[in-house]
Amino acid sequence: xxxxxxxxxxxxxxxxxxxxxxxxxxxxxxxxxxxxxxxxxxxxxxxxxxxxxxxxxxxxxxxxxxxxxxxxxxxxxxxxxxxxxxxxxxxxxxxxxxxxxxxxxxxxxxxxxxxxxxxxxxxxxxxxxxxxxxxxxxxxxxxxxxxxxxxxxxxxxxxxxxxxxxxxxxxxxxxxxxxxxxxxxxxxxxxxxxxxxxxxxxxxxxxxxxxxxxxxxxxxxxxxxxxxxxxxxxxxxxxxxxxxxxxxxxxxxxxxxxxxxxxxxxxxxxxxxxxxxxxxxxxxxxxxxxxxxxxxxxxxxxxxxxxxxxxxxxxxxxxxxxxxxxxxxxxxxxxxxxxxxxxxxxxxxxxxxxxxxxxxxxxxxxxxxxxxxxxxxxxxxxxxxxxxxxxxxxxxxxxxxxxxxxxxxxxxxxxxxxxxxxxxxxxxxxxxxxxxxxxxxxxxxxxxxxxxxxxxxxxxxxxxxxxxxxxxxxxxxxxxxxxxxxxxxxxxxxxxxxxxxxxxxxxxxxxxxxxxxxxxxxxxxxxxxxxxxxxxxxxxxxxxxxxxxxxxxxxxxxxxxxxxxxxxxxxxxxxxxxxxxxxxxxxxxxxxxxxxxxxxxxxxxxxxxxxxxxxxxxxxxxxxxxxxxxxxxxxxxxxxxxxxxxxxxxxxxxxxxxxxxxxxxxxxxxxxxxxxxxxxxxxxxxxxxxxxxxxxxxxxxxxxxxxxxxxxxxxxxxxxxxxxxxxxxxxxxxxxxx
Length: 738
Description:
The protein is of the alpha+beta class. The chain folds into five domains: about 10-190, Orthogonal Bundle (Hypothetical protein af1432), CATH 1.10.3210; about 210-350, 2-Layer Sandwich (Beta Polymerase, domain 2), CATH 3.30.460.10; about 375-495, Ubiquitin-like (UB roll), CATH 3.10.20; about 505-650, no CATH class; about 660-735, 2-Layer Sandwich (Alpha-Beta Plaits), CATH 3.30.70.260. It contains 28 helices and 23 strands. The longest helix is centred in the last third of the chain and has 37 residues, at about 485-520.
């Protein structure tokens, strides 16, 4: 193994594996785990032998650097092993199955996820859509496991440190992607130590002139203020010693990117930035934090509006600290941060501090679930990513930015617990954040003790109480128009999809049963007798159905048809039949029926409801028992196999203008205003609509619209179909045969 210090590259020292060991051996004492990590190192040294990076350095240096960052965050052995192995499947002949055999399923799953992300190379960015698609794929890959995110952040941080080896275009592309994808995730995870370094490196490539300008200004002002800051530190330290309050005190210089944001995004001058230098005071307990704050405010005048209590109300990444800005004796402004040792660890390493490896009883999966429950945004992140496959990539990225990275509304439960929600959230979002069942049964809400509409926009500081009812019909599709959080949208869509599936099942059962009733009635079999025949083991076993309802659903889909059931049961067809001479005459001059049959005399003729034929369709007549002739389209499954009862019929040539009902179904990608656009087509074309029903499918984000429209003939119907297919998202329009 290595033992000598590697040369400095790009201003950053290259660490040895021995240095990685020195860190993880401080908190991982298990000989087995230590051995597994060393085996992973030896494995990559063999597999990546001879491979180099663009900078010319051996490739394994990158893997060791990633492991060093992970060990610094006190990640567990499986995370460090996966960090060492994260490129071995992509760059060598090693398989995920081989990793599973050597290091177990947990490591193999992490490496597999990282490999899939690695294969999503930056596309040639020619538009925002391509760029958003790249970013979406990376998010989806990381949404499976928080450890995948942490390893990927460590991987990206070291890649940024060595950007100097790439050409300028590539440097810009990677820096831009890092700012848009990886920095927001690091911030959300509270990994400030990674976030700040990433920001400074990225801005040095994206805005090199401004970066150098700020660097010079910062260096100059820091030197001027340092003496004054040292005096401030000494006076505070003297007071804390006198009060016997345990403390550590240090100073920090504001990051270059933070100054860049204030100067070039918020429009402040360099002189207007108060917190160029800040004091950080670390103590033992929360009470001591507030005690120190009081003492500092007694010594120095606080700046109004600059005090923030992140202990009582932590940030969304679990950050806690007291922040105040005071005026020093020299008239300069200084920010003071006060926190406990545990808070300081979280402030630097965020989620990693909560998830640091612990000896004895360590269960990574249980630990991960605990962290995910604390990080509500991660649940939204997973929900958005898992539902995004059919989304427009730009829309997905907008959702990520709104729901995940810009969330800053903090409200309270009746018991005083703080709940974080996205901007624009409503009581329904709050209800689903508490529990899915609470959201599904929500019937009302109190905000600050007053009953409010469910679409009320919540503000930071509101106290929310949800009223529920076990008899609630559940969420409606209208809720999707005002909820703001991804978790609420996901839960509502799932509930509606399940409800629609149940309604659809009942509807299909009813339609299938009616088809059978009509077909059996024409053979002289009434409903009660038909039910006995179809509900028999003979029929159900032959067709493979558990009950008669499942059989009726299948009949709706014409698998089998009602005619096929009749054939299987060998129900005899009447050989001799007579037309009902008393039936209403339908072919007389002036009669409304547009069809006639040569030589049929006074036989009643009617258009079948199952296939709704209209002028222009190819038609055939079916001689019913006692009901005259029923006119069907020739491709109607209810008559297509018929041999004996068919008779030729014709459309009248002198049909007066009339409209006829036609059942149609529209299949489309689900989106806002889809139904509005469909109705606009009907209105503009002056098409009457007798019935309309729409439902969405949350699983594949599709929508189905069923309608009965009134048209004069088949040509008119085809013209309407062309207009409907021209609607954005519509991919299929068909006539329905019942």
